[in-house]
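Model: You mentioned two targets. I'll fold them one after the other.
Researcher: Yes, keep them separate.
Model: Target one:
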Amino acid sequence: MTSSNIIVLCAFAFYMLVMIGIGAFYSRKTKNNEDYFLGGRGLGAWTAAISAEASDMSGWLLMGLPGAFYLTGTGDIWIAIGLLIGTILNWAFVSKRLRRYTIKAGNSLTIPSFFGNRFRDKGALKIVSAIIISVFFAVYTASAFSSGAKLFATLFGTDENYSQVYVIGLIIAAVVILVYTLLGGFKAVCTTDLIQGMLMLVAIMSVPIIAYAIISGNGGLDANLMKHADIKGYEITSAQAFINPFDGGLSWQGIISGLAWGLGYFGMPHILVRFMAVKSEREIKKSGSIAIIWVTIAFIASFFIGIFGRAFVESNLNETTNETVFIRMIQQIFTGNGILIFIGGIFLCGILAAVMSTADSQLLVTASAISEDMYKGVINKKASEKSALMLGRIAVAVIAVIAFIIALDPNSSIMGLVSDAWAGFGAAFGPVVLLALFWKRSNAAGALAGMISGALTVIVWDYIPFIGGQTISSVTGLYSLAVGFPVALIFMIVVSLISKKPDDEIVSEFESVKNNNI
């Protein structure tokens, strides 16, 4: 191991110890399920905003998305645009009413419990929700673990031992995330997310600016892009075509698929739970402004990392290495003396921050769904707080193991894993959340129909090879969320209309929330 690697490892060790220390600190403050899963509804504006966005922007923000831009130029910019629109709409319309409704509807601590309380369901909604959360969060958490493992393998591995170092990195990432999630619960996760979100922002803003300055003094952007124009399957015909979203391979499927990513926000449990945990609606308004600014900066910076990375990184990357472009840029910029290398190591911790801030949130939501909703809510309603909390922590470990197994393949695509999980949640939960909040005629039967139809549509679209051995997604080029969301919306509306109307108590509760009488 080189001296540079040792310095970077020291930076990583320091960062991870700080995160574990925060988990240990908050473990003393965690006394019950509301503390562990919702932080006692005491989040401030900055913590709620940055935690929500940091838990959203996993390793795909610093690895998957820049890697896509690196290969295709602005072809994938529609994803960023869709996500930005979704972020704005989520904070503007969902955040306040969801917080208000979860308090009114039995002080719901989780999204599944909100569904159950909102529709007065006896258990089916909670169980189906918990199953969907467990399945898709296992995939989503795997993408975060894979990001951390690729970081370690890229930094400390060689062509000969890449796979072995990848597994070591996977183990380290999984263990550290597990330790502080198990220790401190929601408040620890949100506090670390605040730190990690700010670190991510500093890293993602600084690196493309420095890279562009170097490129400008070495022939300019266009000339350096054309030096790396011959990547097989992703050739650049001209620098302008590469950076113009309306030039070249534009298709209606690509635009619709990219924009459809924004629909996913309405169904992301790990983001929605932040709205529920904010201490007041006044803080939510402030949080929304902070979050939207953070996301806008992050997406713009991610775009420039991919574009400038294509011109800056010395050796060409390909379909299996493109997601390491941010890492390669840092390695080339922060080289020479020990201080620069250590600073580069801290910047690389931004990737760890992205990985950890998402995986911890997803594990915690999964634990709450299994212990609070499935076990205590349906299976054993007399279960004690202590036993439910212990089961939740066991669930965290089990889901982490499943995610670890999914992520074992070093050639797995971070963007691909995120895409699958995002579509699953967006289609299964998005329409249900929106109609539960804004349509008083919606009912439990409709919610169940929407949830199941959305999840099944995504699974069929993405995984079952119906057409000549290919999936519908591969043949049509259309993102499954663009189909699954409207399917679930239609099913929920139709089934709600043809089944029994909600009773007066449910309608009265809806009107109270609508008029802010809680």
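Model: Target two:
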Amino acid sequence: MLAMVTMIDGRTILELFLNRVSASGPDTAIRFKRTDAFEAKTWQEIGEDVRRVAAGLQTLGIEPGDRIAQLSENRYEWIVADLAIQMAQAIHVPIHAPLAAAQVDFQVNHSGSKALFVSGSEQIAKVAEADLPQDLTVITYESTDAAIPQQQLHISSWLDQEAPEPGSLEQATLENTDSNDLATILYTSGTTGEPKGVMLTQKNLVSNTLAVIQTFGMEPGDKRLTFLPLSHIFARTCDLYTWIGCGCELALAQSRETVLQDCAEIHPTVLNGVPYFYDLLLRGLQQHGLAETPGALNQMLGGKIRYCCTGGAALPDHLFDFFKSQEVPLLQGYGLTETSPVISMSTPKQLRRGASGQAIPDVEVAISEDGELISRGPHIMRGYWRNEEATSEVIIDDWFHTGDLGKVDEDGFVWITGRKKELIVTAAGKNIAPVLLESLLTQDPLIEQALVIGDGRNYLTALIVPNVEQVTAQLSETPDPEKLLEQPEVQALFEKCVEERLMGVSHHEQVRRFFLIDRPFSIEAGEMTAKLSLRRPIIESNFSEQIESMYRKTREQ
């Protein structure tokens, strides 16, 4: 017999969770892979693990308002740590697992974190490489032999203990936590590449969670499979916290590569993803000649899918059309980290091709005089951590300026028409600051100018203007000047140059292809402003054939 969905309420994430444990204690809550099989835990069992870890944090001297970072891929312990941090009245600083050691270093130090949860050997190696405070306590999820100067604890030393009795620990937190208290700090790339810590309060997260649930509703027996990183606000709110709010089952995919295998075992009814993932599904069906077979998509996703949701990047019309033809609604939403994240979303009954749905309850949207989409409501961040100047630039008279150009039609549907700020959003929903990458590339004597491309694409490419004198000086022989850039030796020289210059950035910030162009960007060609800033749309238009060749080259391989 299916358990009925019981909607619950709360002022804070912890109160939401404790109310869920009280309402659904013995029900299966989550499934995750241990070795070869999915293991299940009830709400009551999760509550016990959360109390164990929260008590462990208290033994470390963690006090209300302290920051605690987490560097981990999706796993059961990630969720327990998140809720335990809330129970300890601390502030969670999740760090994206693909980031490089230098980026981890910045976020831990800038946030002033006192403890750091770390998953396995790949992540602990970054801790060893980074210059982190020696008084930082590192709590690992897996055994590791890595030598680090910080104190190491294994989370099993807490999880293997008898769980504290329900009562005093959580009651003190409930009494002393206000809905306006800070819950988390999430670092996101600014337009110049300097990470900014987005401060989200309990009210931000809870209001957005409950508004999403109110917009969609749930059915008995609903199951979510999540594969988007929980360190991003999309999955954090729309998978994790909505799961708590509505009491459905949540399953954690083993990895991005196993999603379809996991779907076959879990039979999810709801999926959240980015356009890149849904495009892969279409391509997979096309390769097997099944794209026009009725029901093929649903069967591919486990046979029980009611709808799929997408965000993080613009949804191409052809994907919307394909999912519609397969009778699986693909529902586009819109939001940012700074907005907790949902501003607007489509539903099975309210959707339009190309639109990002309508504003969710209690959220206002408007268009400024220069065409920028702005929003206000309980979802708007408190500001950027230790960066009042950046905060004042985007929050003006309570309105958050998204940096995106758009319109709101007469029926309240939100349409995104362009981007005001210099920020690339890849097809996988990754926010990339091109100015940072370009500055790293042009630090090399071989590179005069560089333009990084990748908006809506599967990976980054770059147009590079070489310093011909520097290039010639490094060659073993002097080639014909007209054929200089075509020489294999020159291509190899720049491959090494790009790799070395971007060594300190994450995997999704790597430039996969580049094209060497034989003239500089210029004011005369309209490619630069009088202040010598790059005019990206014009450069991309002038070199559209070269740009397409970089993406076509990969498709043909």
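Researcher: Noted. Anything on target two?
Model: The chain has a mean pLDDT of 92.
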